[in-house]
Amino acid sequence: MAGETAGARLPAAHVSKTVVEERSDTTAERHDGRLAVVQQLLKAHGVHSYAVHTISLKLSGDDGQPIPLGEPKLYAPELVVHGDAGRVVTVTMGARSGCYLVSLPGSTPQTVREARQVADLILTAQPGGGS
Fold first, then answer.
1. Residue 128: alpha-carbon gap to chain centroid
2. Distance CA 42, CA 128 (A)
3. From CA 125, how far away is CA 14, in angstroms rounded?
4. What pTM was estimated for this model as a whole?
């Protein structure tokens, strides 16, 4: 899972990308809106984050020959939070549950139901315990 943003390779701390199901524009928009709530809560505490949107297009066939563009795969949006010493927290939405999946450095992803809880988890994970 190699995501790229502004030419910089994102660390492996990312939660595995989830393909949003067919007719996914509204699902992706809903997930994006919920991540924006977390982003605003973090911004109020001076924590910078950004959203990552990934669309995959297959550009060649199995034989290496170019093929017409097929249906793009739209991946669930992710919220990326950079902390001190290059620590990265990634937040995405569960494909079916609608819960937040929070990936803190050095731990398995945690499932969280409320945006405020996500922000609190990220803020307490920051060195010094947040603002």
1. 24
2. 15
3. 16
4. 0.70
